[in-house]
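User: I'm curious whether this sequence folds into something compact or stays loose and floppy. Could you predict its structure so I can see for myself?
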Amino acid sequence: MDYTMLYEAWKKEKEDSKLQPLDKRFFVELSVYIKDLKDEIEMLDGKTLLAHLALEKQKNLEKIVTDLIQTRYNKISTALFNDEQVPSNYLTSEEDIFCTSISLTMGEIKSITRKILRGQIPYIKGFKRTEGSKVLVVRFLKDMPAIVGSNMKIYGSFKAEDVASLPTENAESLIKRGVAVKVETR
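Assistant: Here's the prediction. I'll summarize afterward.
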């Protein structure tokens, strides 16, 4: 990954109304590239022209990355809302995870819309309003891919022996399935 590859991906995404393919590891490689750039900046004398140029490059990277992610998110959300297929081979691993979450949310939005149009009171199945979020601390017994929590946040992925605070509903489900055990806290 380098600046040119990122710029080209961003440019293609901006020029076409359809979602453009990205490698599954695109964001992982991008993260490594940005970390390396930050490490390089820390090593430079802040008063030099080279340091100034590196900081400007970092600012531009941040703008492009933010815009690329937002543009792709909007395209994915719009496609799913319009019941269009989103080619999974066009998605990064991270996008694939939130695509599943967005699909569930879009289904609920459509359900609410149908109910309102029928004159029924909308109700979202499986979601409860809670004051503050209740969490349980669990220790994983097995490796586990990332999950979408009951609060619609993404947690994980996890390795055996990892410890995490998860929404109670999710933690209890994992405990029942034998994937994790509750960690007693004070």
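Summary: Residues 135-182 form a domain with the Ribosomal Protein L9; domain 1 fold (CATH 3.40.5.50). DSSP finds five helices and five strands in the chain.
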